[in-house]
Design goal:
855 residues, alpha+beta, Immunoglobulin-like, 6 domains, six-stranded mixed beta sheet, 29% strand, elongated
Length: 855
């Protein structure tokens, strides 16, 4: 003990000297440098690796501007820092770790460049890397052996303008496949192409090995004839390259790889010489014509509708053929209506309604309308036409005879009253017409709803509290069990008992009559302290037992034991005068080890936790008032401004959303009102007000997103989903996880024998309730679908989706955006918002055309 104390004192003295010396001798710092680590080596083709930009004794001043490197893509960096002291020389390093992916099989050189640091501009030396074949993790297995991708078409030659399918086929060995990490990256130019279909990976046997097969298709056509090369396509895939941890706590190690399909060459054949009237349509089409009515009067309108429908190169079809009519008709300029199939660029219809107003009576023949297109199946031109129609126009409509003795003509002929009025039949009763729905009254108090969590964050909120609760409960129970099983616990208790006994001897020496009883207690305590395995040991056994733990103390305790035996069983029942001081000194020299926290993890303390876990897993597998006053006074614009400010400060206030919708509806801005009412409904679907708002908004605005229509009808699973908001259902999942954790804790109590037989049925019932709650919440969140994402927005007006956030560039690709479209808002830029749609399509749209449903 003295040697240990001396060593500790020497160590502390050395540390103090070192601290004093460091205060007198300043640590020297090396020069500032910036370099790549590693500066050279090999990278895998299309394989994500990491290289570090290391700052020594300095830090970057802002984000470094990296040079453009042909064939090398830099990702978003992570940060790390470290400080080291060697021979009184301190070095600080700050590292930016970049994920990089080479896209060419050539040597890659990162040129030297300057970077701004907090110590000034520093030059980064060049770095050179070679590019080899990508491997799967550290296995050395080439990527091409376990994963392939290729483009396929149903043939190798097509007509110019012919729509043909292109398939991207992906195969990955099942033991390496984890998930798809991105959409297909493909630039179809100069082709006209649809979006890729959604991925649906399936498992199958390929070449005697189980593989995951994913096939996605699109359709394209080429306007120009000649030899055409379909560009290469690529997709990022998460692959399992190993695992970390062990047992129940193991998890796979994931790396991303890009699988590229090689370019594909096809032949585009030119069309044969075209006949007169050919407008460039290629595909399969049908033609319809309808005239209503066939008999009309002068000045009464006649509608002539024609419709072209089918599959083909619709982007190149600009309009319908012209029609010839007599000069005796006034023609109202037609408006074409193009309707495309959902998600399709090449299937749709085009219709026109021409209104003819005759000015003269007579019989007129409307000539057939002809449309010529190229049929790709027969390889020839075809012409479809409507049937000729004859329209009869009378001079005036049939006159209405006025009743007798009437001085002015009437619009309707009314029969005169019969002579016997009592015999006339009574008119049949007519039910009253139900009035149209009107907006309700505004709410006077603010009311907030649940905003759902983001996808990845939500599962952390679900699992982490439950796991922490289980871990804390297990740690407490294991600690209690460890203390109970501690072999030194009885020795510590015996030492404390002996100390109390000797203190009683010193405090009450006059009670010598109790000496025998006290000595017997002392001997029992001594036997427990030294773990003597005998009911009535003698001095030799006492000395041998003590020597097993403290060799120098054996004779001392043996002598004390002998003196106690003589006082108990000898003729002179007295103790030596110095016995109490010797017993106290001997006891003070005894050091019993305390409880060791590491014993928590011993097998006998950990086993009940693992057993209980297995048992559980087997069976379960004032502004508002001002706005309301303005609304009641008819100042809807002022009310709108006030409620917009409330929503800006508190986006989850569903009452403010409801009130804002009312103010907008009073201004006949039904579409924007419907968007805010949709938000109010998602924040609190249990309210009758929000349900009324949703139905009224869909009715008046004409918007009909399938998700909202089904929620409005409340049929099947949507009836259950409407019982709570998406955020509340997520809270239900969290509660289910906590209930499962509570069930596990109850079984832990039983495993550690701190609960009776009631524990198992209570745990099973709690688990059953948790499973039912989790199933209901999961089903409801699936019913809400995209509407359960906090970034979801709704397009409330007809807009345009653009490739880049500007209206100045007229050459960019655009797409019409219908009211009621549901999308996710990624980021904003100068009044523009980038949207991502569930199908993977993305683009920019004006922010004022959107309403965020949760923010």
């Amino acid at each position: 003990m003295r040697r240990l104390t001396h060593r500790l004192f020497s160590l502390l003295a050395g540390l103090c000297c070192l601290a004093a010396l460091s205060s007198l001798v300043p640590l020297s710092a090396a020069a500032q440098t910036v370099r790549w680590d590693p500066p050279a080596g090999q990278l895998g083709y299309n394989q994500v690796s990491q290289i570090s930009l290391v700052f020594e004794n300095c830090e970057p001043d802002g984000a470094p501007a990296l040079p453009q490197v042909d064939g090398l893509t830099f990702g978003r960096p992570s940060q790390s820092s470290q400080t080291s002291i060697v021979n009184f020389s301190m070095t600080r390093t700050f590292s930016l770790v970049y994920p990089v992916r080479p896209s060419k099989r050539t040597a890659i050189a990162i040129p030297a460049f300057e970077v701004k640091t907090d110590k000034g501009n520093l030059k980064v030396p060049a770095a050179n890397y070679s590019v080899g074949d990508a491997t799967v993790g550290n296995s050395g297995v080439p990527l091409d052996d376990v994963a392939t991708a290729k483009l396929t078409t149903p043939g190798d030659s097509f007509w110019a303008g012919e729509v043909f399918p292109v398939a991207y086929n992906l195969e990955v060995a099942r033991r390496y496949f984890h998930s798809l990490a991105s959409n297909i990256q493909w630039n179809p130019s100069p082709l006209v192409a649809e979006d890729w279909s959604k991925p649906d990976p399936q498992e199958g046997m390929v070449g005697g090995e189980r593989r995951v097969v994913s096939t996605q298709t699109t359709r394209v056509y080429s306007k120009q004839a000649g030899t055409l090369t379909l560009p290469a396509a690529g997709q990022m895939v998460n692959m399992i390259v190993g695992s970390t941890g062990f047992g129940l706590f193991s998890q796979p190690s994931i790396e991303q790889r890009e699988l590229d399909a090689k370019p594909l060459t096809v032949t585009i054949k030119p069309l044969p010489p075209a006949p007169a009237g050919f407008s460039g349509a290629v595909g399969e089409f049908s033609f319809k014509s309808k005239v209503v009515p066939l008999t009309s009067g002068v000045g009464e309108p006649i509608t002539w509708n024609i419709e072209l429908s089918g599959t083909g190169n619709w982007p190149d079809i600009t309009g319908l053929p012209s029609r010839d009519v007599s000069n005796d008709f006034q023609v109202v300029q037609p408006k074409s209506k193009r309707t495309m199939k959902d998600g399709s660029l090449f299937e749709g219809s085009l219709s026109e309604d021409v209104v003819l107003v005759p000015t003269r009576p007579g019989s007129y023949r409307l000539a057939p309308v002809k449309f010529t297109y190229f049929d790709t199946k027969s390889g020839s031109y075809k012409t479809v036409s409507s049937e000729p129609v004859t329209v009869t126009v009378t001079a005036i409509p049939h006159p209405v005879q006025p009743p007798p003795n009437s001085g002015a003509p009437l619009q309707f002929s009314i029969k005169s009253q019969p002579e016997n009025p009592t015999a006339s039949p009574l008119p049949s009763p007519t039910p009253p017409t139900t009035p149209e729905n009107l907006p309700l009254d505004p709410l006077l108090k603010s009311a907030r709803g649940f905003v759902p969590f983001k996808g990845g964050h939500f599962w952390l909120v679900v699992t982490v509290p439950a796991l922490v609760l289980i871990a804390v409960a297990w740690a407490i129970l294991a600690a209690l069990r460890s203390r109970e099983n501690d072999p030194q616990r009885l020795r510590r208790a015996a030492r404390e008992k002996l100390a109390e006994l000797l203190a009683g001897f010193r405090a009450r020496p006059e009670k010598a009559s109790d000496l025998s009883a006290q000595l017997e207690i002392w001997q029992r305590g001594t036997a427990a302290l030294w773990e003597i395995p005998h009911a009535a040991p003698g001095a030799p056994l006492v000395e041998a037992s003590v020597n097993l733990r403290a060799r120098e103390a054996g004779p001392v305790w043996a002598a004390l034991w002998s003196d106690a035996d003589r006082a108990l069983h000898g003729r002179d029942r007295t103790l030596p005068a110095d016995w109490l001081s010797r017993a106290d000194a001997a006891l003070q020299a005894v050091r019993v080890p305390g409880w060791q926290p590491a014993s928590l993890f011993s097998p006998r303390n950990l086993a009940p936790f693992l057993f209980t876990l297995a048992v559980l897993l087997i069976p379960l597998a004032a502004r508002a008032a001002d706005a309301a006053d303005a609304y009641k006074a008819g100042d809807f614009s002022t009310a709108e401004t006030a409620w917009r400010k409330t929503i800006q400060d508190s986006p989850a206030d569903w009452a403010a959303r409801h009130n804002l919708g009312l103010a907008l509806a009073q201004q006949d801005r039904w579409a924007e009102a419907a968007a805010h009412w949709t938000s109010a409904f998602l924040l609190n679907p249990r309210s009758d007000l929000t349900r009324w708002d949703l139905a009224l908004g869909l009715q008046r605005s004409g918007m009909a997103p399938p998700e909202l229509v089904e929620l409005s009808r409340a049929e099947g699973r949507f009836k259950i989903a409407r019982l709570a908001s998406p955020g509340a259902w997520q809270a239900g999942l969290i509660s289910a996880a906590l209930l499962l954790a509570a069930a596990l804790i109850v079984l832990l109590l039983q495993g550690y024998r701190r609960a009776g037989a009631w524990a198992r049925p209570v745990a099973l019932i709690t688990s059953l309730v948790a499973v039912i709650l989790a199933a209901s919440a999961t089903l409801s969140l699936r019913a809400y679908g995209t509407l359960a994402d906090p970034a979801v927005v709704i397009v409330w007006k007809t807009s345009v989706l653009r490739s880049i956030p500007t209206e100045a560039d007229t050459t960019q690709k655009t797409s019409p955006l219908s009211p009621g479209s549901i999308a996710f808002a990624e980021k904003t830029f100068l009044g523009w918002t980038r949207l991502t749609f569930p199908g993977g399509q993305s683009g920019w749209v004006r922010t004022e055309d959107l309403v965020g449903l949760y923010r």
